[in-house]
């Protein structure tokens, strides 16, 4: 099938061709005709399969067919995303494919000044791509009206729930017109997604182009079993020995990202850290430098697991395994995109063995191990798949110090000490000097 067979307008087809695309991906081929029919959609697809264009193209086509509304233009399409990075990715997709159309779009997210966003919204816009928090701020300040929304997209719904946005989502849904088209996209499925879909969608068409919670076949996966204190050294060796030019490294904490970045810089590796404490300007600058090759390694927390769209990213490294197994799929989905090959490496210490077991249970297969890492061998057998129980230290026995007990409520004189009593001869219970 070709894009020209999907019923899209000539302006959209021209924009698609300018990006070098002729044939749609499976998710695009299935979703576009259904969305053009006005049906609600529940779509599941791996990251990197082109699902963003799968809903932006048909929604742009629908808006193009409608009369241009009077100024200021009301918001007719609302796309809700969990992170700033994903909001920018969707916004750029709308701008790229709608470049030949007389339509306007705005991206709304936190971490930056709200005033420029207020000014843009006042001028009127057809499409808003937003994160929940900043969107609700604008609504509560009466700068944004959702009463004219005709199409509502919930992108990366599973990540929304993981980040605790369910209450915000329900508040936003309550402000939308009852009659509208709803599109729910998710890379992984969980029971909570099914419950949300039942509440949101009306007789939806379900589209699934790959096995649920599965990694792309184009991504080769390896596990290095290694003690934690050797992880940084092994990572630096892999980057240098393999002449890697671009690698995305995931860590668990913001502090860990900053610390690892400083260590790699000392090893002579150009890198930058990306996490929630960074300003929006610093995050954009780090991504730009990573994409244009100015830095080799981008050290990121899971905030970057969604929304990063990097062409031909060859390597992803899990320096720390994620606490939630589904996040592993999202992390390694940053490589092997659009049919390209990629490599995902996980550095796993014995304390993370239970996390590895959960990931392999989700994938329904064992990830190959590297037998000889060059470091002392470790066991990654988790036993029952749970974190190892911490040993309970025995309570120390009270030792006789020779101090007289102070009466309740009394104060001791720090300058006056009570000499220890001399043990009586033959008294076996007396404290012995050590």
Account of the 3D structure:
This protein is α/β, with parallel strands linked by helices and 434 residues long. It has two domains: 206 residues, P-loop containing nucleotide triphosphate hydrolases (Rossmann fold), CATH 3.40.50.300; 145 residues, 3-Layer(aba) Sandwich (Rossmann fold), CATH 3.40.50.300. 34% of the residues lie in helices and 14% in strands. The protein has 14 helices and 13 strands. A seven-stranded parallel sheet has the order 3-4-2-5-6-1-7, with helices on both faces. Strand 10, helix 12 and strand 11 form a beta-alpha-beta unit. The C terminus is likely disordered.
CATH level-3 fold name of the largest domain: Rossmann fold
Could you tell me the number of beta strands? 13
Main CATH class of the largest domain: Alpha Beta
Order of helices and strands: HHEHEHEHEHEHHEHEEHEHEHEEHEH
Largest sheet: 7 strands, parallel
Number of helices: 14
Helix content: 25-40%
Report the principal-axis shape: globular
Structural class: alpha/beta
| Major β-sheet strand ordering | 3-4-2-5-6-1-7
The tally of structural domains comes to 2
Q: What are the segments in which pLDDT stays under 50 over at least 5 consecutive residues?
A: 388-418, 423-434
Beta-strand residue percentage: 5-15%
- Round the Cα radius of gyration to an integer and report it: 28 Å
Q: What is the second-level CATH architecture of the largest domain?
A: 3-Layer(aba) Sandwich
